[in-house]
Amino acid sequence: MTTVNELIQNPTATRLASTYKKAINDIEQAFENINEAKKTLKSAYGDTTSFFPFEFNQWKLDKIKKEITRNCWKRIITMLELPSFMTGKRLDKLWQEIDNDETPEITEQSVIDFCNNIYMELKNLVSELIDEAYRYLHPYHNKFKTNKKFEIGEKAIVYNMIDIFLGGAYVNIYSEEKIQTLDNVFHLLDGKGPAKYPGNALTIIRQAIQDKKWQCETEYFHFKWYKKGTLHIRFKRLDLLKEFNKRAGKNRLKSQNEDF
Q: What is the DSSP letter of 104?
């Protein structure tokens, strides 16, 4: 993982910006060379002969440059492991901004400014992630007596997490993000970085299912799943669970106050 502080350092920001600029210059030069070659060929063979499968015009060049800019920004975001700190909603918005070319061209200053903004927002990002994990574990329409009304207890039951097909269990696609978010939150509360493959909860659950098991455990959780699609979670680190409830409670009180 490249930390915000590492990426914000001038040598790193300078390297990313200079590499991007050189690549763009090389592509622009390549287009010029191809178009010069095209003129040379036409001078000898005439205008009626087609030498290339498509035009190397300004529109094509701009399209390639935009795609490179988008992919470079996306790579910076993954280098920072920001998807692990962001809610699905916020991350979708960020991807959309990049795909809509709302991000600036990559320069040393734009990389530093982006990292500074992320650093200032990091606390809020984690708070949003905690609140999202709480909502996954404590939906508005809670039908299980095991689940406590105003906080997450040592044990929690979440429904519609597991699909059963031909006698086998599968983590459904809508649940993958929920499990990964919960895992990331408890790793972060423990002072660690986001959960990583292959030690993350989602991978361990998938491996257990592949081994025809109906339960497994990680550093922070014991999971057990049933044919009716429910996932039973027992929290192993009660100190982290206490901190999770404390922070989630503050977030929800703040959200409720802002509604009035």
A: P
Domain that holds residue 208: 138-259
pLDDT of 248 over the 50 cut: yes
Say how far apart CA 141 and CA 139 lie, in whole Å. Answer: 5
Query: What strand order describes the sheet that includes 215-217?
Result: 155-158, 231-235, 221-225, 215-217
Q: Is residue 133 part of a domain?
A: no
Q: What is the pLDDT of residue 149?
A: 62
Answer whether residue 159 is part of any domain: yes
Alpha helices in the chain (DSSP H): 4-8, 10-45, 58-79, 88-99, 108-137, 173-189, 201-210, 238-259
Taking the C-alpha atoms of residue 157 and residue 142, their distance in angstroms, rounded to an integer, is 9
Shared-domain flag, residues 106 and 22: yes
Q: Please tell me the pTM assigned to this model.
A: 0.76
pLDDT score recorded for residue 253: 45
Looking at every residue in the chain, the average pLDDT score rounds to 86
Structure confidence at residue 245 (pLDDT): 93
Regarding whether 182 and 103 lie in a shared domain, the answer is no
In a domain, 79, yes or no: yes
Using the Cα atoms of residue 245, residue 250, residue 251 and residue 252 in order, give the sign of their dihedral.
positive
Report long-range pairs for 191-198 (Cβ below 8 Å, ≥24 apart).
193/1, 193/81, 193/84, 194/1, 194/81, 194/84, 194/85, 195/84
| Pair (245, 146) in one structural domain | yes
Residue 147 CB contacts under 8 Å (≥ 6 apart), including other chains: 137, 138, 153, 156, 157
pLDDT score recorded for residue 259: 39
One-letter identity of residue 162: I
Structural domain includes residue 130: no
- Higher per-residue pLDDT: 43 or 140: 43
What's the domain count of the chain? 2
